[in-house]
Design brief:
Elements lengths: L2 E9 L8 E14 L3 E8 L2 E8 L5 E9 L1 H10 L6 E10 L2 E8 L7 E6 L13 E4 L8 H6 L12
Antiparallel strand pairs: 1-5, 1-8, 1-9, 2-3, 2-6, 3-4, 4-5, 6-7, 7-8
Length: 161
């Protein structure tokens, strides 16, 4: 079974920006979200994917991803997905032998900046960069699937709430 092992952290300051290797704008929406899984459509750089993730909000989750036609993905985003869509720019930063993905959210989730790190094992060691703050891997509010139902702008002003 394909598995994703991912840790999430809040980002402190803008010092990471000088280390960005590449940036990609994403649009994604959820076709389904229930107690077992979520089904997402995502577009980036003229490509598109259908993604299915187990619903457990944990560091390790089952994840399946399949390329789909970008025009069909755009149609699904506009007609079938829950609102608001998740819009963000993902910045790739190499640090300590790992690639960190820093998501700067837009739209209803503007102001939220989260760093994600994919690992090979749950107990894999890594050196956190100085711009990485509090870990939020176990806080369901920070999962994209939940940002659709409870956007960041409704939280009362700060990721620390």
């Amino acid at each position: 079974m394909p598995t994703e092992i991912e840790r999430k952290f809040l980002v402190v300051g803008d010092h990471w920006r000088s280390h960005v290797r590449r940036s990609v704008r994403y649009r994604q929406g959820y076709l389904a979200n229930n107690e077992r899984c979520s089904v997402r459509v995502r577009t980036a750089d003229g490509r598109a994917w259908l993604n299915i993730k187990s619903a457990d909000l944990a560091v390790r989750r089952a994840e399946y991803e399949y390329p789909i036609d970008p025009a069909e993905a755009a149609e699904m985003l506009e007609t079938l997905c829950e609102r608001p869509l998740i819009e963000k720019t993902r910045h790739f930063v190499d640090w300590g032998g790992h690639t960190w993905e820093i998501d700067v959210f837009e739209g209803e989730n503007a102001g939220l900046v989260v760093a994600e790190l994919e690992l090979d094992a749950e107990d894999q060691a890594f050196v956190p960069p100085p711009w990485v703050g509090r870990e939020v891997s176990d806080d369901p509010r920070y999962y994209n699937v939940n940002l659709v139902k409870h956007p960041y702008r409704e939280w009362g002003g700060s990721a620390e709430n």
